[in-house]
Amino acid sequence: MTCPHRVAMEHGVVPAPHRHSRIPLDYVFERQLRREVPKIKPAFVVPDQVDCAIIKFHSRRITCLEFHPTKNNVVLSGDKMKILFDIPCFLLLDSKKGQLGIWDYGMLHEKIVCRSIQSCILNNMKFNPVNEGILFTSSSDGTICCTDLETGIPSILMDLNPDGWHGPANWVMLYGMDTNIERGLVLVADNFGYLYLDARSRMRSGQSILVHKKGTKVVGLHCNPVHPDLLLSCGNDHFARIWDLRRLQAGSCLESLAHGRVVNSAYFSPLTGTKILTTSEDNRIRVWDSIFGNLERSSREVVHSHDFNRHLTPFKAEWDPKDPSESLVVIGRYISENYNGVALHPIDFIDMSTGQLVAEVMEPNITTISPVNKLHPRDDILASGSSRSIFIWRPKEASKPEEEQQGKRFKEFTCGKNEKKSKGKFDDESDDDFGDFIRNCKRSRSLKSDRKPTQAKQSKSRT
Question: Is 395:45 a contact under the CB 8 Å cutoff?
Fold first, then answer.
């Protein structure tokens, strides 16, 4: 009855007043001992050492990475030669020419090749939520493909350019993509501001809604992991918008989050879905702590260098899916810094709850920028795409001396087919593929008719 927190509303009583029962020892505890008490929040684990890599494997730069939902140690990759590595899949990535590959970084030298998946740039990929052997991909050729990863055979779900090339004003390119398991939907957005719903069940296939300013590119879509009816989109009109799929129509967004420049990406937090993380070309990473609160202004803005992407894949800050506090993000950095006489472009780990830089990881032998980064959903592993190369990062082993760790670096890596090994450093030139893409668009119809998988061939690899 004397508890200060006791409330019995059925009797109409109020909480008892807090009694002044503190003793001098309580103040000593607050001033001197509390700072030594360990926090409930666990320490961040940062993968900061390269464990293995494929060097210059792609003919063009990597555009995205994705981890397999259940299997480990396997990476999907592709290059200009239309190669598909057909190994049990774990981490997927695609090259600038629309190919898809698979690499098992636990068995570096086992590779099998097949034909390509799409005829133009592969911009995004998502696993089928109900079948991990099926992969959905969106491309700048205006198609959504469904690929069986066991056979490597793609099938077209949607083609927005059925009549072929009639100039850039009419050519539809597909960028942001996500899946909605509850509604059986594959959602994809184009370069004219429209959202398309390709239905697996109840809704009309190909339905389009204007979700951003007409004529502007929509580069990102993300369904809320807890409330799948909430959709987050972002684009070149300097806005990220929240939508309700139950009443989706033009002009019906729930909130519009204004930014200074183009928004490269926008994601809900991976566990609770209550936070929003955006990356903008105004060199800001923004976070909103609650989608149920005031969204007029972001909770925090972190200044970061990532505003250049003419010859690069756009930088995107990604959540750590293992972090229970939903605060750790990873993003590559554009501006280089001098580390012992070498200009390096580090990968930054940032605590978005405080805005502090947790770690900046770099490898002296990697002199290229790493705009594509993805953290493993289960292990302490980072996969990064730097130009045409793939790198797998793990945490340093604290028990081993530094000399032994230095000797272990790049102990295992492979070089791409018909590529020369660099002299001590793995660098790469910039590649602007817009001209190649326009030429490919004009003959994309003929390329689509030649999608049959070829006989698997064993590719060459060396350590």
Answer: yes
Q: Considering only CA atoms, which of 335, 366, 401, 345 is closest in space to residue 50?
A: 366
Which residues on neighbouring strands pair with residue 220, listed in sequence order?
A: 234
pLDDT value of residue 73: 78
Q: What is the dihedral of CA 14, 20, 21, 24, to 10 degrees?
A: 150
Distance of CA 439 to CAs 312, 435, 443, Å? 20, 6, 7
- Most confident range (mean pLDDT) of 40-49, 89-98, 137-146, 239-248 is 239-248
Query: 388-416: b or e for each residue (b if 16 or more CB lie within 10 Å)?
Result: bbbbbbbeeeeeeeeeeeeeeebeebbbb
For residues 75 and 77, give the distance between their C-alpha atoms in angstroms, rounded to a whole number.
6
User: What b/e sequence results for 277-289 when a residue is b if at least 16 CB atoms lie within 10 Å of its CB, and e otherwise?
Assistant: bbbbbbbbbbbbb
102-144 pLDDT, tens per residue? 777 777 766 554 456 767 788 888 888 888 888 888 888 898 8
Report the alpha-carbon distance of residue 175 to residue 233 in Å, rounded: 11
d(CA 426, CA 345): 13
Distance, in Å, from the CA atom of 361 to the CA atom of 384, rounded to the nearest integer, reads 11
Q: Torsion over CA of 266, 268, 269 and 274, rounded to 10 degrees?
A: 130
Residue range 75-112, pLDDT digits in tens: 665 443 333 443 344 455 554 456 776 777 777 766 55
Residues 6+ apart with CB under 8 A from 97: 59, 60, 78, 79, 80, 82, 116, 120, 121, 433, 440
- Asked whether 337 and 343 are in contact (CB, 8 A), the reply is yes
> Do 132 and 115 contact (CB within 8 A), yes or no?
no
- State residue 143 phi and psi, 5-degree precision: -125, 155
